[in-house]
Amino acid sequence: MQSPDRTRGARPVKVSPTLTSYLQIGPLLLVLLLFFGIPLLVVIAYSFFQFDGLDSVPAFDFVNYIDVLTSGVTLSLYLKTLYYAVVVWAITLLIGFTVAYFLAFHVQSLIWQMALFLLCTVPFWTSNIIRMISWIPFLGRNGIFNNALIGAGITQQPLEFLLFSDFAVIIAYVHLFTLFMIVPIFNAMARIDKALIEAARDGGASGWRIIWDIVVPLSKTGIALGSIFVVTLVMGDFFVVKVMSGSQSASIAMAMSNQIAMVQYPPAAASAVILLIVVSLMVAAILRVVDVRKEIAG
Amino acid sequence: MQKLQTGKRPLSFYALSVFFGLFVLFLYGPMSAIYILSFQGPTGGLTFPMRGWSLHWFDALFSQQRTGDFAGAFTRSMILAVMALLLTVAISVVAGLAFRRRFVGAAFVFYLAVASLIMPGLLVGLGVGLTFQTLGVQTKWFASALGAQLTWTLPFGMLIMFAVLSRFDRAYEEAARDLGATNWQIFLWVVLPILFPGMIAVALFGFTLSYDEFPRTLLTSGAANTLPMEIWGMTTNVTSPALYALGTVTTLVSFIAIALALGSIAIIQWRRSRPVGNVSLAKEQE
Fold first, then answer.
1. Distance between CA A237 and CA A85 in Å, rounded?
2. A145 contact B CB<8A
């Protein structure tokens, strides 16, 4: 323990508050610029380079964009990826809202609330790839699910559509990403004043009206944040769709990763820039509906 | 919590409980299957029924036969995760403190961080990989991969610090200043202890996000594999329960990390709630 006299003797150098702010934000800004800002510019630069079949040649050429945009494959890939994003978004929103609502309004003891919340978050700490793989012995031809169905006499033959299909892709996405919906919505709901609900109930509102007129509007920011997470995660994914569809289906990011694997950097960079624009537009659309800024900045 | 409904619960409670139960089953069911299957006997396969019980596949994992360099990848991932943890905590805490004051460019940094958070991981990896290539610097797991991972752990850390600092009562700092504490003393003895549980949450995020990160690491880790890449390689090459054994081991490590974090939060809360000599004396005099 220092004695107060000693510290009073050694006057520290006075640093102005403004300088302090910049010193404090400096490391974050530096890392983000070095590993996010500059690399993004490099990707944009590469998207204009020429690819001569072997190497990337510095240039300013729109050919990569023209190739990507005029290819029929691009459109079908985008439609497929959007389809995954919308379906997964709808399912995770439904599950996320219901689970968060149950935890926030029906579980009354704080201890239980925390315990059940943790129960939902624990799988999140396991490797995504492992969690994805865990569906394979479950959904496979001789998997647990098929065996159970046959055992129960529901079907005679194993269902083939379970694994290596859109169904498998969507189930894996929901498994991986629902938490990203639960956490922000639960966070928003936990801040709702319970007295509001009581007042509405005393005023004779039905359960559905309370949900629709009070809970939904007040958890809007949580819903928007969760939607942004889920939509961007699905749009940018390449490994779930690759493994779970058995390479029968593809997504934008998977096409990109194939190009990268073949060292076709300029076309890959052009697809990346287009993907980035599409994802940004989707996020902007969500933000137009709900203004999240106040929530996270405050 | 003004009104505690004791006695009868509405019907919706039971319906929602069942829904929640099914959701938990959905979360844990498939995963518990692979944990069980990883204890297959030596002749066991990728599906049920179990053919005996053994630790054979864990042994296969560590003995480096056909499963690649698991031990090396594991070590690298652990070192990487600890580096990400330390940097994420240190940088997020000071950045969080910076945002308490208005400064020119605050909005820019904030949106840069949010953009970095929602950027598809593969794209970040591609960008960092290309940047290193353009500069003629070799990508290394402890340099380029670490940086790529930080673009994702730091915004998470920053948002958690926002949540923690929004509940921070600045009166504590005022009081310390009135008593003659210097800025450093205020930071070390007042601010830091209050922020500590939040910092552990940031640490936990930093560690596990880095430990599991795949798309950002894929193009940035250079010649040596990290654990998620090892797992990725195994999904295409290995068709034995060794893959499940790997899942069990990595999950166990995550659990230990969570247990350590929650344990330290619990200890801190307990020590804080315990009356310290002077404080209890002051209370008696009140």
1. 10
2. no
Give CA–CA dist B118/A5, Å, rounded: 50
Q: For A69-116, what is each residue's pLDDT tens digit?
A: 888 888 999 999 999 999 999 999 999 999 999 999 888 888 888 889
- Smallest Cα–Cα separation from A274: which of A63, A65, A37, A81? A65
Peptide bond into B49 cis (omega under 30): yes
What is d(CA A1, CA B188) in angstroms, rounded to the nearest whole number? 12
The Cα–Cα gap between A79 and A71 comes to 13
Taking an 8 Å cut-off on Cβ atoms, the answer to whether B103 and A25 are in contact is yes
Q: Is B255 on the interface with A (CB under 8 A)?
A: yes
Is residue B228 within 8 angstroms of chain A, CB to CB?
yes
Instruction: Please tell me the distance in Å from A104's CA to the nearest CA on chain B.
Output: 12
Q: What angle in degrees, to the nearest 10, is found between the helix axes of A17-32 and B70-98?
A: 150
What are A161-208's pLDDT values in tens digits? 788 889 999 999 999 999 999 989 998 898 888 888 889 989 888 888
The rounded radius of gyration (Å) of the Cα atoms in chain A is: 25
Reported as a pLDDT band with limits 50, 70 and 90, residue A139 is confident
Average pLDDT estimate for B180-185: 88
d(CA B75, CA A74): 40
Amino acid, res. A135: W
Partner residue facing B151 (CB), from A35, A124, A283: A35
Residue A270, pLDDT above cutoff 90: yes
Give the residue on A whose Cα is nearest the Cα of B247.
A130
Q: What is the ipTM of this complex?
A: 0.86
Interface of B with A in 207-226 (CB under 8 A): 208, 211-212, 214-215, 218-219
A190 has a chain B CB within 8 A of its CB: no
